[in-house]
């Protein structure tokens, strides 16, 4: 007999893992479909997951779990991991803990644990009174006042235009 383990990870419960193991004999190992066809085996898996996780396993979830497990068993894998989003089981009772407290107990007000931050430096803007408007017509230079001694430099000659040079 070989042992096969199913690990169900529930993402909504902080990736909590539920382990469920079965032992299969030769025929069930070769034909796991027959083992999972029995309602008592399917019900045992569903109940084990619901009891350990306090989550509701729907028939679609159970079908998905079993089909994945069957494929892994047929492939020879002895450990199958299935990740599911199972909704909380609202039918299970929520245990509440109640204690009797005296009504004359007064707790002090909560004080802040951290002092408020104050700026260490103050950023001041500079007063620049010599700023000239950009789009003003008075900022356009007079053509007669432009210094003609500075001529724009010509770009260097383009070597691509020289046809006497080799292309390599």
Using brief descriptors, characterize the structure shown:
168 residues; elongated; 14% strand; single chain
Structure description:
- The protein is an alpha+beta fold and 168 residues long.
- Helices cover 26% and strands 14% of the residues.
- The protein has a domain at 2-84.
- It contains 4 helices and 3 strands.
- It has a 3-stranded mixed β-sheet with strand order 2-1-3.
- The protein is elongated.
Shape from CA axes? elongated
The side-by-side strand order for the widest beta sheet comes to: 2-1-3
Q: Enumerate the spans where pLDDT stays under 50 for 5 or more consecutive residues.
A: 92-99
Taking the alpha carbons of the first and last residues, their distance comes to 76 Å
DSSP summary: helix tally: 4
Mean pLDDT: 74
Structural class by sheet pairing and helices = alpha+beta
Radius of gyration: 40 Å
Beta-strand content = 5-15%
DSSP helix fraction = 25-40%
Main sheet, how many strands, which sense, barrel? 3 strands, mixed
**What is the element string, with H for helices and E for strands?**
EEHHHHE
Number of strands: 3
């Amino acid at each position: 007999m070989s042992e096969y383990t199913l690990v169900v990870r529930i993402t909504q419960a902080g990736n909590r893992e539920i382990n469920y193991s079965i032992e299969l004999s030769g025929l069930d190992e070769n034909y796991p479909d027959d083992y999972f066809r029995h309602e008592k085996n399917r019900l045992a898996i569903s109940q084990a997951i619901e009891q350990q996780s306090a989550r509701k396993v729907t028939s679609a979830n159970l079908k998905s779990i079993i089909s994945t497990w069957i494929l892994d068993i047929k492939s020879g894998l002895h450990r199958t991991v299935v990740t599911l989003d199972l909704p909380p089981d609202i039918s299970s009772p929520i245990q509440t803990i109640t204690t009797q407290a005296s009504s004359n107990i007064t707790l002090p007000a909560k004080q802040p644990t951290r002092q408020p931050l104050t700026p260490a430096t103050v950023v001041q803007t500079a007063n620049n009174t010599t700023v000239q408007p950009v789009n003003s017509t008075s900022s356009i230079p007079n053509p007669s006042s432009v210094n003609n001694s500075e001529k724009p430099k010509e770009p260097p000659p383009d070597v691509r235009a020289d046809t006497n040079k080799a292309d390599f």
